[in-house]
From TrEMBL:
Protein name: non-specific serine/threonine protein kinase
InterPro entries: COR-A, P-loop_NTPase, ROC, TIR_dom, Toll_tir_struct_dom_sf, WD40/YVTN_repeat-like_dom_sf, WD40_PAC1, WD40_repeat_CS
Domain of life of the organism encoding this protein: Eukaryota
GO cellular component: cytosol; transferase complex
Positions of the Roc domain: 318-590
EC number(s) on file: 2.7.11.1
WD repeat residue intervals: 82-121, 201-240
The reaction(s) this protein catalyses: L-threonyl-[protein] + ATP = O-phospho-L-threonyl-[protein] + ADP + H(+); L-seryl-[protein] + ATP = O-phospho-L-seryl-[protein] + ADP + H(+)
EC main group: transferase
PROSITE patterns the record matches: ROC, WD_REPEATS_1, WD_REPEATS_2, WD_REPEATS_REGION
PANTHER family: WD REPEAT DOMAIN 5B, WD40 REPEAT PROTEIN
GO molecular-function term, one example from the UniProt record: kinase activity
Length: 1100
């Protein structure tokens, strides 16, 4: 074998081999991990080789002039010459059945390893030097000093990162971080998937030519003749590997081994844990047939391989398919939902009907279909991850011989070979001494011989009560992910078709609203009584159930019907076998079931469930996540498990964020004590403790008028987590504060806080309220029209809650709202209006002599939009206006706005009549009724007041923010404050690029400084400079924070004092931050308070 001739520009490694390519001799070489040279071959085009990637016994090599070759290492033969690039190929990746390549011809190409065909071409706009990818993203380092991030499926560009100041020479990517190395000598670390910069690693003194990442470690090679090891989480430099005589141009990291290639015409293998040099290879080593390496590997003990694979999977937090599905059982009360669950679980039938309260949870698996205790899935998925690693060592075919280049490993498919792995102690998921005790090593070997499709799906069954009173509660827990099972009584469908179809339509529409892509299985019960009527039932469903349109229906192909008939009274344990099979088949097709998540996430949940408690503080979850190096993903992992129904965690307020419900049944049971049906109301009524605490009158008030006392709610919740439960019901609009006195209560009770639970009024009727509405002298009327789809249960009740809360906040507390199930009369100060739900419409009628009726309508529309966006997002609706001159004329709000803009005098109304535009002018006296949809409009017609400024000041307030997270919000805030008479400085209103000095002078010329808090605001150098200037100038500092969890800048409030500069931490003790409000009915109070704070601000 010959000495390496030329620079080593590319290296790669697998568990068994080290590979390197060199330019002058245009060669690929491979060594065993013991340093024996097992392969040497020249590239077919005899051009300098620049890049290499490896998977098992497969390699890809890129060369000068666009050459790209796929090589079988076991036979040293070229499988494919991949033709398409027209310039040097500087980076290649092998990933499953695909090769990804990057070239100076400004393209990235994806190739099929089996056929050699190019399947995708991405135009990068500049020469591509570095390439990395995972299941979702392709990342490229470019000659224009940018890193481009592309969607892997579509090839569309999603991010353009501009932090580098020279060529980006190399990139690496895993499931947590993206790393880049550039000509400016810096290594940059970005969070995935946001691609926000989290670390700049400084230490190299020349170009960083190559980077690699695995687990918690980053390796970088530089022209400063060093290789450096860094901690990916903290950015700390761990080790400097020295001794190179020339530039370190390529690096690879796999387990405890670092491989580097340099201009010194050599390849070095280092121990990542100690920094010790193991081998320096130059091509003159003793030769060994590559087949000997393969034969030696086969001699490894299977049990040892399984254990090492398990240890590696645990240490790296390998991703695996969770295989968990939420099965939601819905339908009319007494349709047989709970009996259907019993049939699924092989339980004996219950002859006596048992009514479900709220929602009942059970757990099972498709393997046994019997009720099981909760299992986080951690143990099973850890064993599957280990088996997956082992399976990659068995190389029977090209497709299973895969273990790609370490420097660009993908989450879910990286580090697949089972090799000895030494993990840092602090990321150990299971103590090494416990591994063999806790896991069945033999079962891992067995699993390694099976296909991945052998995954067993676990189900969390949510049995939703069918009584009407619970419907408003269900909207909180109907989620996008999972399978829906809609149960109906076939006898009732045949005998009372119209009513049964109404219930089926309600549930199908609810599913389409909350989970439009979720599969639905229809189950017809009482098969024993309707066995000869299946076709009659089928005809009704297909011909008369219009709500089936647009539903992803799971059909019964065996019996050729659209539903699955079931006899729940049968004693046969397999009475639901066909239904089970349908559920399992359907669930196996869901992306959420096959989605891969890190074992670190599962270990967090596993440890939490071992606590065996209903709920824990958020900080407990945070500590566990940090222990397993997932601390920066705590909110993300909780959101994932929340959607699966495994935990409940809301983020909209600090109270909600700080509580994680580990047992959702606990929460459901608490809510069902307040929102209860008649059967369970009786149980509470006869509870002796109710009388002992003198709460009988309180309970009657709750049931009759929907008004609850704090004492009663505390009793219903057993004095447990009352503050959290109140906040949960407020946030989901099940409850609102009731600021009005109640004569029926004892004086001592009336002095305490009262709450409105408006959904309890659903069936309440009031003849007196009917008469009062009929007697009103109506001025302006508008209609919230849902007839295009349907009006979900709970919309009207939540609108009542918001109205009652607002009425108490702004008006005299002597005029309590008059409420019933589908109607109300409410007063906002001097404005009086009626609400009525009639079929699929909500009518809003304002009394003629009300103050500012158009403003009242605008406020009510804003409240509805707030309720819609919070609980019924995606619900189609239209706003209709009724002519003040002719009540029979209705027009669409959007149509009349278009007509006004067109300058016409009349327009077609709904139906056969025409409308005069002049009649509708009063609706627009306060601007747009849909101001919440038009955030830049203020709607303030009056001249703003004037707020004086001292002669040395130019502005009342300077708005400081991070543009990408709060630019729109601060622009809107500036508009609102200016319309209220304030002079505001915000960078979006300034001309040209501002210098640091100009920004500082503007702060000194402002009465006060407002800091808009968002997730990474303190990561902005500009913001920190502005804040420092404000502190030095002793300007009063006001705080406002993002309050919408759906916005990119949202973060838990505790994030801000933790990440704030040291000299600014005192602000969070001295100043109360205001949550930013966009909705009109909340924004008015927000801006009134903000203006008052600005006006009252005094210099320190």
């Amino acid at each position: 074998m010959s000495l390496i001739q030329g620079y080593v520009l590319g290296v790669a490694q697998t568990a068994d081999l080290v590979l390197a390519v060199s330019d002058q001799d245009a060669s690929l070489r491979a060594w065993s991990k013991e340093g024996a040279l097992v392969l040497e071959m020249q590239m077919p085009n005899k051009k300098p080789a620049y890049s290499v990637a490896a998977q098992g016994m497969l390699a890809a090599v890129g060369t000068r002039g666009g050459g790209l070759f796929l090589i079988d290492l076991s036979s040293a033969t070229v499988l494919h010459a991949l033709e398409g690039h027209t310039n040097n190929v500087w980076s290649v990746i092998l990933d499953g059945d695909e090769v990804l390549s990057a070239s100076y011809d400004k393209t990235i190409r994806v190739w099929d390893t089996v056929s050699g065909a190019c399947t995708q071409t991405i135009h990068a706009e500049a020469a591509v030097r570095g390439l990395a990818a995972n299941e979702d993203w392709i990342v490229a380092g470019l000659s224009d000093a940018t890193v481009r991030v592309f969607d892997r499926a579509s090839g569309d560009q999603r991010h353009k990162l501009r932090e580098a100041t020279g060529w980006v020479m190399s990139v690496a990517l895993d499931n947590m971080y993206m790393v880049s190395g550039a000509n400016d000598g810096k290594v940059r670390v970005y969070a995935v998937p946001s691609f926000t910069l989290v670390h700049v690693l400084e230490g190299h003194t020349a170009t960083v030519s190559s980077v690699a990442i695995e687990g918690d470690s980053i390796v970088s090679g530089s022209d400063d003749k060093t290789v450096r090891l860094w901690n990916a989480h903290t950015g700390a430099q761990l080790r400097v590997l020295q001794g190179l005589s020339h530039y370190a141009r390529s690096v690879s990291l796999l387990g405890s081994e670092i491989v580097s290639g340099s201009y010194g015409k050599s390849v070095r293998i280092w121990n990542a844990n100690t920094g010790a040099l193991k081998f320096a290879l130059d091509g003159t080593e003793a030769a060994q047939p590559i087949t000997d390496v393969l034969e030696a590997l086969e001699l490894d003990a299977a049990a040892a391989a399984a254990q090492e694979a398990l240890k590696a999977a645990l240490a790296n937090g390998d991703p695996g398919e969770l295989g968990r599905c939420k099965l939601m059982i819905i339908g009319q009360g007494a349709a047989g939902k709970t009996s259907t669950v019993r049939s699924l679980l092989g339980m004996k039938p219950e002859k006596v009907h048992i009514s479900t309260v709220g929602v009942e949870l059970r757990r099972t698996s498709a393997e046994l279909w019997s009720e099981e205790a909760f299992d986080s899935g951690f143990k099973r998925q850890a064993m599957r991850a280990a088996a997956l690693r082992m399976r990659t060592r068995k190389r029977p075919t090209l497709r299973s011989r895969i273990s790609r280049r370490a420097s660009s490993m993908l989450p879910g498919r990286r580090r697949l070979s089972a090799q000895t792995f030494v993990a840092e102690e602090e990321v150990e998921l299971v103590a090494e001494a416990e591994v063999a005790q806790r896991f069945d090593i033999a079962e891992i070997e067995n699993m390694a011989g099976k296909t991945q499709s052998g995954q067993t799906i676990s189900f969390t069954i949510w049995d939703y009560a069918g009584q009407d009173v619970f419907y408003t509660l269900h909207h909180i827990f109907l989620t996008q992910e999972g399978v829906y099972m809609l149960v109906f009584n076939m006898n009732e469908l045949l005998q009372d078709t119209e009513l049964a179809l109404d219930y089926l339509s309600f549930w199908l529409n609810s599913v389409k609203l909350h989970a439009p892509k979720a599969p639905v299985i229809l189950v017809g019960t009482h098969y024993d009584q309707a066995f000869d009527s299946l076709q009659a039932v089928e005809a009704i469903l297909r011909n008369d159930l219009q709500a089936l349109r647009g539903v992803k229906l799971v059909k019964n192909s065996l019996q050729k019907v659209s539903f699955f008939p079931l006899d729940n009274m049968s004693t046969a344990e397999d009475r639901a076998v066909e239904l089970r099979n349908a559920v399992e088949r359907t669930a196996s097709k869901l992306d959420s079931v096959s989605q891969k998540i890190s074992l670190r996430w599962l270990k967090v949940i596993d440890d939490l469930m071992m606590l065996d408690c209903d709920h824990v503080p958020f900080e407990v979850v945070q500590e566990l996540a940090e222990k397993y190096h997932a601390g920066d993903q705590t909110d993300e992992l909780l959101k994932y498990f929340h959607e699966l129904g495994m935990v409940v965690h809301l983020r909209t307020t600090d109270t909600l964020h700080d509580k994680v419900v580990l047992n959702p049944q606990w929460l459901l049971n608490k809510l069902a004590r307040v929102i209860a049906d008649d059967i369970h109301v009786e149980q509470i009524y006869y509870d002796e403790k109710l009388s002992d605490l003198e709460l009988d009158d309180d309970f009657k008030l709750l049931r009759d008028k929907g008004i609850g006392t704090f004492a009663l709610l505390s009793f219903l919740w057993d004095d447990e987590e009352v503050a959290y439960l109140l906040e949960f019901m407020r946030d989901t609009m099940l409850l609102s504060d009731w600021a009005f006195s109640e004569k029926l209560l004892r004086k001592s009770r009336d002095d305490g806080p009262l709450y409105l639970v408006s959904s309890l009024l659903k069936t309440a009727r009031s003849d007196d309220l009917d008469a009062k509405i009929a007697e009103m002298d109506i001025g302006l009327t508008c209609v919230l029209d849902f007839s295009e789809f349907f009006l979900p249960d709970g919309v009207f009740a939540r609108l009542l809650s918001l109205c009652a809360q607002y009425s108490g906040d702004i008006g005299s507390r002597k005029h309590a709202p008059q409420l019933a199930g589908r109607q109300a009369i409410i007063r906002f100060g001097l404005s009086v209006f009626a609400l009525e739900q009639i079929d699929d419409k909500i009518w809003i009628r304002v009394e003629k002599d009300s103050d500012k009726p158009a403003s009242t309508l605008k406020m009510l529309v804003s409240m509805f939009q707030g309720a819609r966006d919070a609980m019924f997002r995606g619900l189609p609706w239209d706003l209709l206006l009724q002519s003040p001159k002719n009540p029979s004329i209705l027009v669409s709000y959007d149509d009349i706005v278009d007509a006004f803009e067109s300058g016409v005098e009349s327009m077609p109304a709904i139906g056969t009549k025409n409308a005069k535009l002049a009649d509708f002018v009063p609706f627009f006296e306060d601007g747009s009724l849909k101001e919440d949809e038009e955030e830049n409009q203020d709607g303030t017609a009056e001249s703003p007041p004037s707020f004086p400024l001292s002669s040395d000041l130019q502005y009342h307030v300077f708005l400081s923010h991070k543009q990408v997270e709060a630019g729109d919000a601060c622009n809107l805030m500036a508009d609102k404050l200016i319309s209220r008479g304030l002079k505001v400085w915000v960078d979006q209103r300034a001309d040209g690029n501002l210098s640091r000095e100009q920004m500082q002078n503007s702060i000194r010329a402002s009465k006060c400084y407002l800091l808009f808090l968002t997730k990474t605001v303190f990561g902005s150098r500009s913001v920190c400079m502005e804040l420092e200037t404000a502190l030095q100038a002793k300007r009063p500092i006001l705080l406002v924070h993002e309050s919408d969890p759906n916005r990119v800048g949202f973060a838990n409030f505790s994030t801000y004092p933790k990440t704030a500069p040291r000299n600014a931490k005192h602000l969070f003790r001295e100043a109360e931050s205001m949550p930013f409000q966009r909705r009109l009915y909340l924004a008015q109070g927000f801006y009134n308070e903000l203006v008052a704070r600005i006006e009252g601000a005094e210099a320190n």
